[in-house]
Amino acid sequence: MKIKRSIPAMLAFGAVLATAACGSTTPTSSAPVSTRYPTENVKLTLWWWGEQEVPGAQQWLTDTIAAYKIAHPNVTIDAVLQTTDGLIPGFEAAAAAKQGPDIQYFWGGIYSQQPYWSRSITPVSDLIPADELKHYTNAQLEDSNGDKTLTAPWYVNPQFPVLARTDVLSASGLTVPKTWDDLLKACDVLSAQGITTLAGGVKDGWFGGWLYSMLGAQSVTSKDDVVAAVLGKQSFTDPLHAGWWTRLQETRDHKCWNNDINSLELYQAQQLWVDGKAAMTITAGTDAPNFVAKAGADRVEVTTMPTWGTGPYAGKMGTTSQTVGVTSWTKYPQVAADFIMFMHTPDRLAAWFTTTGSLPADDRFDMSAVSDPVKKSLFTYAAQGAPYLENFIPSALDSRAVFTGVQLVLQGSKTAAQAASDMQAEADRERRTDRSLIGNFTSWSAK
Amino acid sequence: MTVLRGSAAPPATGVGRRKTVAPHGRPPVSPARGVGRGLVQRLGPVLWVAPAAVVILFVFGYSIFQLVFTSFRYQGNWVGFENFALVVSDPLFQTAILHNTLLLLAVPVLVFLALGVAILLFECRRSVVVYRAILFLPYIIPIPVIGVVFGQLLQLNGAFNGALDGLGIGALTQDWLGNPQLALITMGGVIVWKEVGFGIVLFLARMLSLPEDVYEAAKLDGVGFFRMHWSMTLPQVRPLINFYLISEAIVMVSWVFNYVFVMTNGQGGPGNATVVSELYIYNTAFQSKAPELASAAALLLFVATLVLIIGFFRTQKAGGGTLGD
């Protein structure tokens, strides 16, 4: 029974490879693209993610597709929401088979570079005029390679605001910590009273990447430092790159976190803050207004990670745009691109803000529509934001060194120095096993 | 064998048998037609299974071919054993294999537990159907459901630790899935909880088919509980124990992905505490985007499982019987 089942289990991956081998020839990024808008019936599939961090995105997307259908009755768009854990593997499987979505959601930075390196997407700059693309926020910072813009920013995510409950802090005679020393002092005071200072969950790993970006950005001089470390020109054990591990260990030593941080997922942990059981938490920027509303706007201050570094990004919030790209196998790249441009029309930009309360990734958005002080503050942080570091390291390095290292440092199984050393060892291994990494990152950083 | 009253003896239809005299009193056929019919008789079974065989060959055979083919290449170029060397030297792969091996230690526990509970139920007999159904229930619950439920139950501030606190043994509370020293053991415990029902039902079914009078005679002769089951039950159940042992070993080597993926959100954490070979393959293929390395690792896992399967059949053959004997 199980003997029979075990073979298919092991061969599932082989089947993906087999399907890939049966697929059509991979189109190159420079493949000529038809500019003719089709008149026949067209069906596009859009795989997306985002409702998880931007409640209301699904409604906006449904409305936008309906509006596009009115303008183009021959075009039907089927939007399929992906899970957080399934977003990347799902697309990888689709890319191997050269079938699935016509438009695909990508996080920014490395997540939009990798599909370009594997030739799974057609750069949007091949399809969308430069005059249009120049308005898309963060496209140049994160989603370009050489003279190509790979994916089109959709909405901006301030990465990541710290939400502080002033009522919980003031009850213990504390104010919202702005410096690292203030934070550690708050941790000492609150933990002595049995109150959690920072609510977080690292079981699913993702929060580890957030912490790396928020703490690690404070000591580097630019994102190029991170790329240099990936390429082996700098080391992740250098103080420039390793200091944040020490800060992380300090948060553990000072009992800043909820004691079950290793057995909770991030979203479960954030509820502790809403319930008033924690003084501070960290959320997706797009979701922050909802959290603030739940706790009561008069009791919450939105701020950045307390500063410990002296780098140019210390005290700043990271900024990234979540993007959509056009797959290399779609039959209708021009329609896909046209729909993306439709997402950026004034009416849709305004509707995005109205429906989700988050910032559309387009500098043509009328900021005067924003009256809520929390949102205004977030959008200002995002506009002056720092590069989001996690988006500039290989995703395998992120999951195999950052996610795991954060879990182990916070659990107490590893020291900061060991975690930094592990990260460097993993980067070495990545350069050895991913034999395209050096070339890809070099070309990315060369622009 | 039961012969239906009034029916004729079944015709000989063995492959390769040549008959010129048809059964049922039909006139003899000519030698030429006889040869044709013999050919049809020989090829008949092959033709019947051919469509399924082609599909299986395509699905499995082609996949295996692609797996082997990919594992020796990098971006379309032949690289020999380079991918295998990279995989075998990867500390994470070594960790994953170690974890699979450690999970194998749960197999004897499974067999012992399943056998013990089956013997107890066999002895009690009363309400055996109800107990059997209850004990089998975990086996039919989908693994993702088990993963999610246990993931919640075993949180540091979850229901399981709450129950321990309630029972006054709060000193035993642990971060079952959040502590890297405990996470794999916890995972093994959950797997045992789910898989043991299969063994119980398997063994109990065999025990219930044994002649009752033999046991009654043994009891009348004053044979004790342990002696009776050691000398009478175990030899009868041995082929099934072999089967269960091997099939659970295969589970631990190549069928624990679902548990790990769901209970650790696909991370194999905390740290690398619960990474197993299947998760390594999955993450290498889809997270690290290294299908060649994933293929090499998958091929190694395939060979390991094949060794277990061959071991199973050799054990069966050495035992001189087939399942259910």
Helix content of chain B: 55-70%
Q: How far apart lie the N and C ends of chain B?
A: 17 Å
Shape descriptor of chain A reads: globular
Specify the CATH homologous superfamily of the largest domain in chain A. Periplasmic binding protein-like II
CATH architecture term of the largest domain in chain A: 3-Layer(aba) Sandwich
**Chain-averaged pLDDT of chain B:** 86
CATH T-level topology of the largest domain in chain A:
D-Maltodextrin-Binding Protein, domain 2
CATH superfamily of the largest domain in chain B: MetI-like
Q: What order do the helices and strands of chain B follow?
A: HEEHHHHHHHHHHHH
Subunit organisation of the chains: heterodimer
How many strands appear in the DSSP assignment of chain A? 13
Main sheet overview of chain B: 2 strands, antiparallel
Helix- and strand-based class of chain B?
A: mainly alpha
- The backbone outline of chain B, from C-alpha atoms, is flat
At the first level of CATH, the class of the largest domain in chain A is Alpha Beta
Kindly state the mean pLDDT of chain A as a whole number? Answer: 90
Number of spatially distinct domains of chain A:
2
CATH topology of the largest domain in chain B: MetI-like fold
